[in-house]
Amino acid sequence: MTAEELDKIAEDERESSRNCRHRLHVCVAAGCLSLHSDQVKNSLEAQIKASGLESECRVKGVGCMGLCSAGPLVSVSSQDVTYKGVTSEDAPEIVQSLQAAKPVERLRCSTDVPFFTRQKKIVLENCGAIDPERIEEYIAAEGYAALHKALTTMTGAQTIEQVSRSGLRGRGGAGYPTGLKWGMVSKAGGAAKFVICNADEGDPGAFMDRSVLESDPHRVLEGMAIAAYAVGASQGYIYVRAEYPLAVKRLKTAIRQAERLGVLGHNVFGTPLDFKIDIRLGAGAFVCGEETALIASIEGLRGQPRPRPPFPAEAGLWGAPTLINNVETFANIAPIIRNGGDWYASIGTEKSKGTKTFALAGKINNTGLIEVPMGITLRDIIYEIGGGVPDGKKFKAVQTGGPSGGCIPEQFLDMPVDYDSLSKVGSIMGSGGMIIMDETSSMVDVARFFMEFCMTESCGKCVPCRVGTVHMHDLLKKIIERKATARDLALLEDLCDMVKCTSLCGLGQSAPNPVLTTLRYFHHEYDELLVQGDGAGDARGIAQGAKETVP
Amino acid sequence: MIPAPKQVRTMPSKDKRWLIVDATMRRYGYAGSSLIETLHVAQESFAYLDEDALRFVASSLSLPLSKVYGVATFYHHFTLKPQGEHTCVICMGTACYIKGAAQLLTALEDAYHVKDGQTTQDKKLSVLTARCLGSCGLAPAAVFDGEVAGKISSAELLARVAKQVGNDR
Fold first, then answer.
1. Which chain A residues are closer than 8 Å to B70 by Cβ?
2. So what's the ipTM on this one?
3. With an 8 Å Cβ cutoff, is B100 touching chain A?
4. Which of A23, A131, A237, A515 is the Cys-Cys partner for A77 at CB 3.0 to 4.6 Å?
5. What is the domain partition of chain A in residue ranges?
6. b vs e for B54-92, b when ≥16 Cβ sit within 10 Å of the residue's Cβ?
7. CATH class for domain B86-168?
8. Sign of the C-alpha dihedral, residues A352, A356, A358, A364?
């Protein structure tokens, strides 16, 4: 593969697309697919065939268009129109409208609303625009140009320099500067090094990584290959959840296509770089999102974390220096290399650069996938882009960061969304799940829900997390059942502090966050559930309960 | 790490599916690190992991049975019990929970006298929960026999399950 060949593929693809008058894009990402968008696609194809329009129409399955709550979505390029809630029965009308050059008004999904106009797409630029199962379309959208640029015009150190300049921070949640991490791995000694893509998106209510993998898998592969070149690795792994069969299938297709074209494998672009990517399936363990647990899982062991240091950058997979980044982090790499680190650094806030994808869900009108520049306010996300809370209910809290994050009340809605502001109010950026709750949601119950999650997902290695989460869950349950006293609440607060400070890994250290933030901002909801009492009897009750439930 | 030379492979039974499991292990050179991949294939082939499967995998990969059991029970995805004829998975992700997934589960549990993770006595229906299906736009969501049903109410879910499970009775 040479630069000329890459250009030719891109040009051929653009040419064939220009020759086609009507391009119909049907969203076939998980959200729309579960509303049978595959049948819509088939009906459209059949209808076009029946109308004899095959030569000028092309129906193509594309990735996530974002507005999942209005699915299945279909867009028609020639009319610049997007349709929502399309069913197979609508196919004849849509095809007729192509000939009449008049869109079907009753299905129209307005795209000049804030949901679409307020977004800034870098990671998701190709989502909903290209067919994820064809590498040619990715190449036509400047795909693999960044890899070629890095390999032929930049050294590894220069590549890392650009990533550092961009100010990109890890999108998995912790926000560690990506350039710094790459630098550490590249400086580490050892012949064999590994690049791992963390696609174990276990945070309930988050589906950004899934959408990226399903809609634009090549972008992640390209990011990994650039990383491999920069740090000197020759083997990569993508650790992806087994619960995402469609993402796995598309990744496998993408890897096969990339190897066939020589943009992965031996002598990438005719340079000395050898880089192979294998897929490893997760098996449903939240803790495997923690990097040392993920490494253990790839090694075929129970996914239990180990103390750091040594960090994976020094001793990771099979003891070799290992670079682990999240899907979204890798998805940002190609545009950074293509446009330069300074371009990326010009977006966002002083300490949080670029954009962030969020999965909006819960009690909100526009559920779906969005990408916004860092520094946008929560209010803009929820009321402008998200369209506010449905059914005239009142907003109560927004939960970010999943089981490791916190609930943010209304008074902070005008706060900018960046790593530091979110942690200041007790939450975290997390991977990007954003769940909106209205006045009907009980915050104590939400805290209990997340604690139950952490309790069952605790790997059992360290005592504070294994035992502490069980006790915290029991106390929360007791409060909800109106059996707890003020003393129980004090004990809960103590336990939060203890588990946070003494757990081995991020799961335990952050498990108390939902409780701590709800205690901080919604203390009255706890107080209302408490009963009077000296607490002596209750303390005994806990000791008894403890005997039964400690694993 | 040099894998011990393998003699003629003996399968637990004449069932052809063991060959698929064996082929997976062979592809990875019978390395212990292929344990999770192998268990995935075994579960895909047999729907669950029974003692024969665990013993076969352990001896083939030269791993102690305790370790194989440890891994199989650590990950939620692996199941050591056979599933019912039909499965209904309720998504318990945050978005679904906020929108009433717990009520869906209770309705199903009460109607069929099973708890989450159990199968009815007549082996017709298994009720399971998922961490998050990633279909948060469709909350609350359930998966019945592999088909996702979004924005579903308890009554709709029960009607749907009764139709399938009832028809077979």
1. 302
2. 0.88
3. no
4. A23
5. 18-111, 142-345, 355-438, 443-549
6. bebbbebbebeeebbbebbebbbbbbeeeebebebbbbb
7. alpha beta
8. positive
